[in-house]
């Protein structure tokens, strides 16, 4: 009898998820842009010695944007498979998924502004 958790199956799932993350950053330009922004924010966070609570907010924002980008990419790839030709409904689906990423990216920029602008102002 197997235990409550199948470790091999769980490890296999992590491997698949890791491949998905690798492919996201390897093939998706916008994911790489978000990665560069993430690196800049982390460097700024270290440089400005942001508080643990600010780090929590930053990490959540980064994770939300990356997750949205992964969902958006998945939806786009599936839509392309379903209909390789132009279809107005597929366009709406893709545009709406991209809007979700944009909404979260704007939220992340606003959050970054709330955290970093006062610290930048103090420099001057």
TrEMBL record:
Keywords: ATP-binding, Cell membrane, Kinase, Lipid biosynthesis, Lipid metabolism, Membrane, Nucleotide-binding, Phospholipid biosynthesis, Phospholipid metabolism, Transferase, Transmembrane, Transmembrane helix. The chain crosses the membrane at residues 33-50, 96-121. It is found in: Cell membrane. Gene3D superfamilies: 1.10.287.3610. CDD domains: UDPK_IM_like (cd14265). Its EC number is 2.7.1.66. It comes from the Bacteria. GO terms for molecular function: di-trans, poly-cis-undecaprenol kinase activity. It is a multi-pass membrane protein. Signal peptide: none annotated. PANTHER family: DIACYLGLYCEROL KINASE (PTHR34299). Belongs to the bacterial diacylglycerol kinase family. This is Undecaprenol kinase. It comes from Dyadobacter linearis. The gene is dgkA.
């Amino acid at each position: 009898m197997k235990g409550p958790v199948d470790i091999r199956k769980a490890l296999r799932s992590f491997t698949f998820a890791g491949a998905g993350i690798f492919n996201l950053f390897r093939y998706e330009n916008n994911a790489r842009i978000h990665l560069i922004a993430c690196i800049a924010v982390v460097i700024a966070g270290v440089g400005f010695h942001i508080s643990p609570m600010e780090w929590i907010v930053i990490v959540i924002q980064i994770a939300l944007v990356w997750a949205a980008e992964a969902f958006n990419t998945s939806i786009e790839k599936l839509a392309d498979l379903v209909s390789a030709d132009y279809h107005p409904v597929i366009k709406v689906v893709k545009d709406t998924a991209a809007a979700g990423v944009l909404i979260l990216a704007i939220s992340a920029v606003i959050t970054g502004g709330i955290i970093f602008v006062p610290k930048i102002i103090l420099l001057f």
